[in-house]
Amino acid sequence: MRGRAGTATDESSRAGNSLRRLGQAWVGGGHAPLAALRALGLALAVALLASAPRASAQSTTSNTTFTTITSPNGSISLTPNAQGVDRDRDYYSAARPWWISYEDCIAPGGGDAFTFKMTIRDTSDPLEIWAGTENCAVNRSRTDRGQCWIVARLAQLSDTVSVRVPVRNILQRRLDTTDPPPETGLPPSVCDNSTDPSGEAFTFYVMLVDGGQADEYIAWDGGSGGTGFDVVGPDPPGGIDIGIGESQLAISLSGVEEDTDRESFEAFCVPAGTTFESLGVENPFDDGVAVEADAGASGLDAGQSNSSGSDAGGAAPSACFTEVLRAGRIAPSRFGCGTARETSGTLNTGTLQNDTQYAVAVSARDNLGNAGVVSSIECGMPTELDDFFELYSRADGKGGGGFCSIAPGQPSAKHAPRGLAVLLLALAGLGLRRTKGAA
User: Fold this and answer.
1) For a disulfide at 15, which of 47, 139, 142, 404, Cβ 3.0-4.6 Å?
2) pLDDT digit string (tens) for 140-174?
């Protein structure tokens, strides 16, 4: 079966053949310049269309269901995903719209929250909402309560009620109480309670409680996408190597383990000497671990502070030391300098300052948007490079030109249209000169 990639290759090939034929026409002469220019314009359009990045179709899993859930005696009715369940923040993944990420938990204002809107027929009993991996309506009255925890309670009921459940109440995951979390809200530190990179799926249980027992209840698990929390990003590459370029760095990734949740890699580039004080922010790594430049340390030897317990605390090497970037910790997002797909073995940074030493590390991001800790730290310094044409001109070359290098192989999707446009405009300029000469 031929896919979109195969079609794009065929179109690019046809465009290239057209350009080669035009080049032969100019070299051989004998063709009317205006006719050649018309053909040139057609080739330009085909080439640009063939090489331009194509927007991939978004495959969205619909989790919308308007089927009302009703408790056995009809005391509780809930219509999920219509007016019945809502969340404050937009979801990151359309395939899992009810899953909680780290960003959802630490969001300003106390984090994200679910809101349940229900119709109640029996308003004499308090309503409680629990989360768990077992039947919480049964486990609620148990001494150990299994794997169930309370996330909200509403004592005064009416025919219609709205109950707000902060996601931090879910991440707190207290199994030893029937008292809900305080209404004043929980601190963002509870967002670090979970350390499982796979997260945990759970089901919401909405119940009317009479004498410590669940009198009526409904269960909701988020439909086909499920409900759960995953606040831990993927592992970083096992190692990185830095290649020097002009105004950028090329990063090779190694020791990458398979991870079905990983969505992309992200590089971080911090200029040497950058401090939290110079940024005007508090040190988020202030955990009592001394972090100093080690003249004998490489990014690899420094290790990851969350696993090795190294005294270096994952510090950057002395050649590009900064306290802002630390191996085994999450990097400040402001220093993100490039991304690559999760299947990539290399990552090119965006534009950087030449002759500036950078501390460089790479992390991975999962399909809920969670950023993982960064890899070992290496140093890199972008440097201005002399290309072929610059060296040729400096050697008193008289051939003219200006295309530094045209190498075989597939150009990147980002730069291919611009490169083709420049080449074709040059050919067009040559055609105009021939036309004037003929006149």
Assistant:
1) 47
2) 988 888 899 999 999 999 999 999 999 999 999 99
R_g (Cα) of the chain, nearest Å: 30
- Alpha carbon separation from 378 to 44, 165, 317 (Å, rounded): 42, 43, 7
Residue 251, Cβ neighbours under 10 Å: how many? 28
d(CA 322, CA 332): 12
Task: Report H helices in 328-415.
Answer: 388-394
Rounded to whole angstroms, the Cα distance separating 302 from 267 reads: 18
Beta bridge partners of 266: 339, 363
DSSP, res 374: -
SS3 at position 262: strand
Contacts of 10 (CB under 8 A, 6+ apart): none
Tell me which residue has tokens 């002395």: 318
Helices (H), 29-92: 33-51
Rounded Cα distance, 32 and 120, in Å = 83
- 331 close to 220: Cβ distance less than 8 angstroms: no
Residue 73 banded pLDDT, cuts 50, 70, 90: very high
Give residue 132's Cα distance to chain centre.
28
Residue with tokens 């978004």: 58
Q: Give the end-to-end CA distance of the chain in Å, rounded to a whole number.
A: 53
**In terms of pTM, does the model score above 0.90?**
no
pLDDT at 291: 58
Triad 269, 273, 279: Cα angle to 5°: 80
Query: Where are the extended beta strands (E) located within 126-198?
Result: 127-132, 148-154, 160-166
As given in the structure block, the two tokens for residue 160 are: 């219609």
DSSP letter, residue 371 = B
**Phi-psi label, residue 299: left if phi above 0, alpha if psi -120 to 50, beta otherwise:** alpha
Among the listed residues 221, 212, 229, the one whose alpha carbon sits nearest the alpha carbon of residue 138: 212
Q: Supply the mean pLDDT for the chain.
A: 77
- Taking the CA atoms of residue 283, residue 289, residue 293 and residue 298 in that order, the dihedral angle to the nearest 10 degrees is -110
The residue written with tokens 């990045």 in the block is 53
Which of 331, 329, 325 shows the shortest CA–CA distance to 357? Answer: 325
Helices 416-438 & 4-28 angle (0-180, nearest 10): 20
